[in-house]
């Protein structure tokens, strides 16, 4: 391959990894009927005059599969933390026990599980689109390199490498979706 014409596969791979990480974050926000400390991450609490992530005002634990507990460090903050959880839209009713806030996770019904699998499928499709857009960026780099004098053989080689990379990431997205849907449908 010629020295001056180089397609940056590492950059494409890094950006595709970014799409996968975004998908994992979106999947983490889906409530599956199973307790997870990450479900509290988006909640902010007004603490000492500023908005603070909930995990910075107390310790989040998952003692049982259907229970999340939050041990609030400052006793004066318990009411504010409880209010923030109630208003977060998680659909969880906090129970107070001194400075410990217990969050029992209710069972999901069949209809809600099906809705969540559809949401997960939408997240996965967004990730696939992002990966395909990155593939297109790579192919555009090849076209520019062709104008700069890249040979037909080199074009074909780079195209095949970019396609293999794309296929591997699409496969990763599909596997992640399959396992998330299994997790959601598990009773």
UniProtKB/TrEMBL annotation:
GO cellular component entries: cytosol
Ribosome recycling factor domain ranges (all copies): 23-185
Entry annotated with the keyword Manganese: no
UniProt-listed CDD domains: RRF
Annotated GO biological process: cytoplasmic translational termination
Alphabetical list of InterPro entries matching this protein: Ribosome_recyc_fac, Ribosome_recyc_fac_dom, RRF_sf
UniProtKB keywords: Cytoplasm, Protein biosynthesis
One MF annotation (Gene Ontology) recorded for this entry: ribosomal large subunit binding
Subcellular location as annotated: Cytoplasm
Main function: Responsible for the release of ribosomes from messenger RNA at the termination of protein biosynthesis. May increase the efficiency of translation by recycling ribosomes from one round of translation to another.
Recorded family membership: Belongs to the RRF family.
Protein name (database record): Ribosome-recycling factor
């Amino acid at each position: 391959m010629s020295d001056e014409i180089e397609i940056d596969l590492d950059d494409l791979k890094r950006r595709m990894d970014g799409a996968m990480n975004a998908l994992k974050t979106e999947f983490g926000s889906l409530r599956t009927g199973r307790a997870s400390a990450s479900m509290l991450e988006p909640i902010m609490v007004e603490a000492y005059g500023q908005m603070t992530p909930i995990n910075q005002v107390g310790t989040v634990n998952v003692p049982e599969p259907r229970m999340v507990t939050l041990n609030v460090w400052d006793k004066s903050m318990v009411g504010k933390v409880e209010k923030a959880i109630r208003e977060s839209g998680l659909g969880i009713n906090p129970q107070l026990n001194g400075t410990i806030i217990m969050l029992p996770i209710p069972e999901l019904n069949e209809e809600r599980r099906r809705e969540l699998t559809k949401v997960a499928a939408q997240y996965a499709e967004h990730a696939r689109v992002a990966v395909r857009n990155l593939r297109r960026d790579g192919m555009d780099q090849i076209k520019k390199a062709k104008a700069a004098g890249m040979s037909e053989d080199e074009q074909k080689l780079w195209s095949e490498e970019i396609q293999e990379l794309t296929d591997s990431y699409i496969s990763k997205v599909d596997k992640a979706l399959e396992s998330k849907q299994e997790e959601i449908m598990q009773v």
